[in-house]
Amino acid sequence: AASAGSGQTCLGPAAAIQDAKHKYERALAAMRERDQTTFIFVLHPEAISIKETRRATGELGKLGIANFRLIVNGIIPPEGAQNPLFAARGQMQARYLGQIEAGLPYAQQRMTLLPGEIKGIDRLRQVGRLFFDGQPATFAPLPTGEKPAAREATSLEAVRAVLEPDGRRRTVFFAGKGGVGKTVASCISAVWLARRGYKTLLLTTDPAAHLGDVLGVPVGDDPAAVPGVENLWAAKIDPKAAAETYKRRILEDARKRGRPETAIQVMAEELDSPCTEEMAAFDKFIEYAAQEGWQAVVFDTAPTGHTLRLLQLPVDWSKQLDVKIFASVDSNAADDVAKQRFGKVIEMMRDPGQSTFAFVMYPEATPILEAWRFARDLGTVGIHPGMVVANMVIPPEQADTPFTQSRRLMQEKYLAEIAVRFQAPLAQIPLLPGEIRGIEMLDTLGELVYGVEKVQA
Predict the structure, then answer these.
(1) Which of 9, 156, 163, 353 is packed most tightly, with the most Cβ within 10 A?
(2) Domain total for the chain?
(3) Could you give the CA distance from residue 38 to residue 122 in angstroms, rounded to a whole number?
(4) What's the mean pLDDT when you consider all of the chain?
(5) What pLDDT is attached to residue 17?
(6) What sign for the dihedral angle of Cα 155, 160, 166, 170?
(7) Rounded to an integer, what distance in angstroms lies between the CA atom of residue 445 and that of residue 436?
(8) Half-sphere exposure of 227 (CA within 13 A, CB side)
(9) pLDDT tens-digit profile of 200-237?
């Protein structure tokens, strides 16, 4: 009976999950063995990347796993440092390489930034020989004689049209491959909107919660004003904490309805799944976004796969949750309210007059492909790209050495591909000498990316 719990979770029957726990324990034991498993962390010599690596190694350490190696990627080579922009980035990297040596005491290998991308069998073999055999490798710059097809630049007006509210609340979702700069793009956008006079809420469900690092101020669990930026509030949604609150609410409701304790235990098991965590985070987002008064809500999403599951769950509500949560508490009224609530939000996401899905990527093959796949998946539920943000674009005037010319040429090719693939307004965040941190820098970048516009009265 429904009152006894369905015995189902989004991963399958609860009993099957118990069997899986035994497999998990065996796998965990193997992962602790140094002669069987090695965890390799790839990071850039930058503050947020180091912080995330520390967080991840710390989490694994709680499970008794300590067999780590590092690959420090993207190090500016001597030929790259002949350009002042890349020379400044090289100096920044040198400081962080020292921090990595001191704070992450694991075996490490270093990979320099190449004139072009690592793509194709020949280049992979060269990198493999460099990594595993210690053989020196020479990566010649790409030929600069062949220019990509000319493309028409997106006007600032077209970009602003999908970012600014137009009489109704505007919700902007930033999506893309992990590590491409979604947090930076969302912070730039939120600060710019607030400076234009729009009351703006900036949210994240990213477990790493890098908003505070980029803003330069602490960001808590509840919306709070960001010092130094009138009209801007920010909050981080902790998926685990949201899930605990969500489960507690469901189980308390069941107890109030007189369900027996055996049924409560079954329901608790059903709710103990990753789907509950993601649904709870989405539920919390709706709670904040539905608050009166916001003119713009900027959502710094988690990496692509996580976000897609987060968004698909409400769309498949009747298939996945009727038998999981609300059928268990035998509450048709609660079911109807939840369906209506989530359905209304999905309709808002599908309306380009109210929502913009902005895909962030480097102008390189892999981030573009992953963002494109994600965009196609969203298209199956009626959500389409509203804007594309290309991050770390080399300014044309900096393409003054063979190394920077080669990398700029590569980026131009992919900027043209982005325009063709996504058919959406394209904004560009330039590569800077250092990291993007603090309100002053976000203000400057907002004007570079979106332009200076008349402030709302």
Answers:
(1) 163
(2) 2
(3) 26
(4) 83
(5) 53
(6) positive
(7) 9
(8) 6
(9) 999 988 766 689 999 999 999 889 999 999 999 999 98
Give the angle 268-273-276 at the CA atoms, nearest 5°.
Answer: 85
Q: Is the residue at 3 inside a domain?
A: no
Token pair of 289 as six digits: 């976004």
Helix H or strand E encompassing 74 = strand 68-75
Radius of gyration, alpha carbons of the chain: 24
- 149 in a domain, yes or no? no
Which CATH number covers residue 88? 3.40.50.300
Residues 263 and 185 in one domain: yes
For 32-56, b/e burial (b = at least 16 CB within 10 A) is eeeeeeeeebebbbbbbbbebbeee
Token pair of 348, please? 């808002």
Same domain, 129 and 172: no
CA 397/CA 408 separation, integer angstroms: 10
Q: Which two tokens stand for residue 152?
A: 């028409």
Q: Which two tokens stand for residue 333?
A: 């009224």
Token pair belonging to 241: 């904490």
CA-closest candidate to residue 49, choices 31, 67, 71: 71
